[in-house]
Specification:
By secondary structure, this protein is α/β, with parallel strands linked by helices. The chain has helices at residues 12-17, 43-55, 88-121, 146-155, 165-171, 191-204, 270-276, 325-338, 388-400, 424-444, 451-457, and strands spanning 31-39, 61-64, 80-81, 132-136, 160-163, 179-183, 187-188, 208-210, 217-219, 224-227, 232-240, 256-265, 283-285, 292-296, 302-311, 349-358, 364-368, 371-378. The strands form 3 sheets. Strands 1, 2, 8, 9, 10, 11, 17 and 18 form an 8-stranded mixed sheet that branches. The chain has an 8-stranded mixed sheet with strand order 5-6-4-13-14-15-12-16. Helix 2 (43-55) runs parallel beside helix 6 (191-204), helix 3 crosses helix 4 (146-155) and helix 10 packs across helix 11 (451-457). The radius of gyration is 21 Å and the shape is globular. The relative contact order is 0.17.
């Protein structure tokens, strides 16, 4: 049986990953039963299925994916595998030293665990522990990482190195940085190859996956019933692992905002990367609130991306989230500013995708109020590649009724109503994003934004910086 094509516009990552042979997964076209049904075939859904299988091999587990596994954020992100050290100030303020230290150490361990899993399963996800450079392209941004560094020093976590101007530019492949901090725990991966590798690993374990099978209705009773166009699954337990699409679930709709993530890519330029000394180089971020990032790839490309350029209305993830020429142009303009020495480099592809953003930048994990057999893990805020393993362990513990180190994490919480209702959220997001862009532009030029712009921009979640 041939693999069915994607419904959504693809990404370079997925195009490359789909070149490899894979096991076909059918549509759901009948009524079936399962011990656990998982909605979403991205990182969270696949890791959850694999975790449940490791603990309880006797469980029958079914994954329902609306398109193909990885067609959402898991196959469209920048491929950064980061810990939560930048969140140290918030973690300290919210939960104290012991919890903050534990969460950061768990997120660091997840990076190594991802590498180990790929080696054990024979997944060539192009994992490379090359580090992550967080740089300041203006004097106004210099030291943006100070609060995070100080908190990490207090907690005794992190593997961080300060870089002066020469070191920052050398480690970043020539970015126009004044200074930077280097996170030596971070890694880069190929998102498409990782998510498709997880899919094959799940299938090898006997986990049933149905692609092109969107869930049209979730009946929350016992058993829960998940209806698709041509079939249904009656399940004792359910996991919601749909990233931005979780905004359409009524209990979760005000817990997250849906924003775009836009990426552009060059053709392979291995000689240029070698000249820059960046062929095995680190991922790079600037210090803008609407963060801009750049990275090399193993096949010699340079990728640049930016988050938050567009927002979704309510729970609707529309086609504009998946491809947009105007937003791609903005990303390229920012890339040219950050890398003025690469003015002749052409960019020949671009893609986009929706991201679920929580108010504090941390995931929200729990069970639906009044329905402890239905768990969710949402709000990854663009940093779910490594931490999604933590979320999957927590979801598995919740569904199995296990009170352990995962189900009692503080990020296991009731869904907060931290976002305003529509249409206030949508209108407000445009006003706030405009203010953020104005402040970012002013600070990039070492100018002070006016007080009103500052006040409005402060309403938006932070980018990398956690203040």
């Amino acid at each position: 049986m041939e693999q069915e094509p994607m419904k959504r516009p693809s990404s370079l990552w997925l195009d490359q990953a789909l070149d490899a042979p894979s096991t076909p997964c059918p549509r759901l076209a009948q009524n079936i039963t399962a011990d656990v049904a998982i909605i979403g075939g991205g990182y969270v859904g696949l890791w959850t299925a694999i975790e449940l299988n490791a603990r309880r091999p006797d469980l029958s587990i079914t994954i329902l994916e609306s398109d193909i596994c990885g067609s959402g954020a898991s196959g469209r992100n920048g491929g950064y595998v980061l810990s939560w050290w930048t969140k140290a100030p918030s973690l300290l303020a919210m939960w104290g030293e012991e919890v903050a230290r534990d969460l950061i150490l768990k997120s660091e361990a997840a990076i190594t665990q991802l590498d180990d899993f790929c080696k054990q399963e024979g997944i060539d996800a192009e994992f490379i522990r090359s580090g992550w450079v967080w740089g300041a392209a203006s004097q106004s941004h210099n030291g943006a990482w100070e609060s995070g560094m100080q908190a990490c020093a207090k907690l005794g976590v992190g593997n961080l190195e300060l870089l002066d101007e020469a070191g920052a530019q050398r480690k970043s492949g020539g970015a126009d940085f004044r200074a930077a901090i280097l996170d030596l725990t971070a890694a880069l991966i190929h998102p498409g190859k990782l998510v498709r590798g997880l899919r094959e690993a799940a299938l090898r374990r006997g986990i049933q996956i149905f692609e092109h099978s969107p869930v049209e209705h979730l009946r929350r009773g016992r058993p829960a019933v998940l209806k698709t166009h041509q079939g249904s699954v009656a399940a004792k337990r359910v996991a919601i692992a749909t990233n931005a699409w979780a905004a359409s679930v009524r209990e979760l709709s005000r817990s997250i905002a849906v924003v775009s993530s836009d990426i552009i890519a060059s053709p392979p330029v291995p000689d240029l990367l070698a000249k820059l000394g960046w062929q095995d180089g680190a991922g790079v971020n600037d210090s803008q609130q609407m963060v801009h990032y750049v990275r090399p790839t193993r096949d010699g490309r340079i990728l640049a991306g930016k988050g938050g350029l567009a927002s979704g209305f309510g729970g609707n993830v529309t086609d504009v989230m998946f491809s947009n020429e105007r937003r791609a142009g903005i990303v390229e303009d920012k890339f040219r500013q950050l890398y003025p020495g690469l003015g002749g480099l052409q960019m020949n592809s671009h893609w986009s995708g929706p991201v679920d953003r929580s108010a504090d930048g941390l995931p929200i994990i729990g069970t639906l109020p009044g329905h402890d057999h239905i768990a969710y893990a949402i709000g990854w805020s663009g940093n779910g590649v490594g931490p999604s393993q933590i979320g999957s362990k927590a979801v598995a513990s919740l569904l199995l009724g296990e009170k352990d180190e995962w189900s009692t994490l503080p990020i296991v919480r009731a869904p907060p109503k931290s976002m305003p209702p529509e249409p206030i959220r949508y209108i407000g997001s445009h006003v706030v994003r405009t203010a953020v862009r104005m402040r970012d532009t002013a600070l990039a030029q070492d100018k002070l934004p006016n007080a009103l712009v500052n006040a409005i921009a402060d309403l938006a979640p932070r980018g990398v910086e956690d203040k």
